[in-house]
């Protein structure tokens, strides 16, 4: 018998096609490394792609899904930008902040969106934007990727353009409800493109050249988290079960409909007395017994935390921001998680928001109808963290002490420093001062200060002597001309 087993093993090992892998250990007794192994029979199964209607319903009805889409854009654009008041007023006129928020959110939700600038530059929308002929920026409109399409003729074939192989013309339709189909073409220079989650080029071809929704990679985690929530509600509903014991219940149920009706009346009576008078009336002979049993919910909170941590892991959003929960554990502050999140927000600002604002500023600068233009076009994002009043007072104090040191050394002008710090209506941390003249940068030693003063007096005397000689020459020349 043992010899037969050996022969079977030898025959099995002599046929590598029967094994699912040949690069590691295998055992025919435990199926380790064979095609019957539970590990080797586990493969990655691609999930279904979320269509536009499913994404819209998730965004509308699921709070976690909507928060995942919005939170990065909201944190990036919070406070908008710090710039001159005249520039901010013009940006508010065209509702630039809300347009950027909508474009960023719809881009993350659907995998792509366009922010289109409707500009009066005396040209058609399908022509490149002419900055030299812009009369006014009329408005900004946002269109998601399902309202946009293009043909092969709309692709850029110029190797020397940065968007070679990408659409140069977009066809936009307002067909949201199927009742109207108004479409128009717009040139790429009149648009700012917002994307979603990056995917390989092979998948972008099948996705009409767009990214995918940020909800695609975390849809399973959101589903599992919602299942835990729903199951927990079912547990709470059955948290307390009432047990009513009646002697001879089985016999009474088989006796007839009249007995069943009397039993139902008895049960209804017990429920009514318990609800109205908060008391239960039972038969004293011991034929009835009333009992409550509670279900155990131990470990339910930990289960919620584990599934919520899974969502945070796949989205990169810390629990303090996504779920609004305080960090747990000894000495836990959540500072490192927030710092990592702020790095992600800064990266999104640099990749999506900053190019869009610079594109808008180029259009605004060229407006001929805008006569009240600012003198300063520099701008910056506000800080991601909002200090408390005490922290803000400490910050102002530190800057005041630093400015005072520079003023005492004569490095900066007090009036110019005050103008940069407070001249724009509020305190500014980052200021730009005028560059000193080269002679003002010469370092003066205490030992050479008197020599420099003597040299300066000599230069002044020399200049005054030269001025006197010039005046004498002019005076003598005038006298000669006067005497003929």
From TrEMBL:
InterPro entries per record: Acb1-like_N, Phage-assoc_HI1409
> Which named protein is this?
DUF1073 domain-containing phage-related protein
One Pfam family cited in the UniProt record for this chain: Phage_portal_3
Gene source species: Candidatus Trichorickettsia mobilis
Identify the residues that the record assigns to the Anti-CBASS protein Acb1-like N-terminal domain, covering every copy. 54-404
Q: Which UniProt keywords apply?
A: Plasmid
């Amino acid at each position: 018998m043992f010899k037969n087993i050996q022969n079977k093993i030898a025959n099995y090992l002599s046929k590598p096609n029967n094994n699912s892998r040949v690069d590691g250990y295998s055992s025919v007794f435990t199926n380790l490394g064979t095609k019957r192994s539970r590990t080797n029979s586990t493969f990655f199964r691609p999930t279904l792609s979320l269509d536009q209607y499913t994404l819209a319903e998730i965004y509308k009805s699921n709070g976690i899904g909507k928060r995942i889409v919005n939170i990065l854009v909201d944190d990036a654009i919070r406070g908008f930008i710090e710039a001159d008041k005249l520039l901010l007023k013009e940006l508010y006129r065209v509702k630039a902040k809300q347009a950027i928020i909508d474009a960023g959110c719809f881009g993350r939700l659907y995998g792509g969106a366009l922010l289109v600038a409707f500009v009066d530059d005396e040209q058609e929308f399908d022509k490149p934007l002419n900055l030299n002929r812009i009369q006014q920026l009329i408005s900004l409109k946002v269109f998601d990727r399902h309202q946009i399409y293009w043909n092969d003729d709309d692709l850029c074939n110029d190797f020397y353009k940065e968007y070679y192989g990408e659409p140069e013309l977009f066809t936009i339709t307002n067909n949201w409800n199927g009742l109207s189909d108004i479409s128009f073409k717009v040139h790429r220079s009149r648009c700012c493109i917002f994307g979603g989650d990056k995917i390989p080029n092979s998948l972008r071809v099948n996705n009409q050249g767009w990214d995918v929704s940020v909800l695609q990679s975390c849809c399973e985690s959101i589903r599992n988290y919602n299942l835990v929530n729903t199951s927990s509600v079912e547990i709470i509903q059955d948290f307390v079960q009432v047990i009513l014991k009646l002697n001879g219940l089985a016999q009474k149920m088989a006796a007839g409909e009249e007995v069943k009706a009397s039993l139902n009346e008895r049960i209804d009576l017990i429920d009514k007395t318990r609800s109205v008078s908060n008391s239960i009336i039972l038969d004293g002979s011991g034929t009835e017994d009333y009992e409550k049993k509670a279900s155990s919910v131990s470990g339910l909170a930990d289960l919620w935390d584990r599934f919520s941590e899974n969502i945070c892991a796949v989205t990169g959003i810390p629990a303090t921001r996504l779920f609004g929960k305080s960090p747990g554990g000894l000495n836990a502050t959540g500072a490192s998680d927030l710092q990592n999140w702020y790095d992600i927000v800064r990266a999104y600002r640099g990749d999506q928001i900053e190019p869009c604002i610079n594109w808008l500023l180029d259009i605004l600068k060229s407006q001929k109808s805008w006569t009240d233009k600012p003198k300063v076009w520099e701008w910056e994002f506000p800080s991601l963290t909002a200090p408390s009043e005490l922290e803000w007072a400490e910050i102002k104090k530190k800057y005041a002490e630093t400015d005072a040191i520079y003023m005492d050394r004569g490095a900066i002008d007090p009036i110019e420093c005050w103008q940069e710090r407070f001249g724009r209506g509020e305190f500014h941390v980052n200021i730009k001062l005028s560059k000193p003249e080269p002679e003002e940068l010469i370092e003066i030693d205490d030992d050479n200060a008197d020599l420099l003063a003597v040299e300066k007096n000599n230069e002044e005397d020399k200049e005054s002597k030269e001025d006197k000689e010039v005046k004498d020459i002019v005076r003598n020349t005038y006298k000669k001309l006067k005497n003929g």
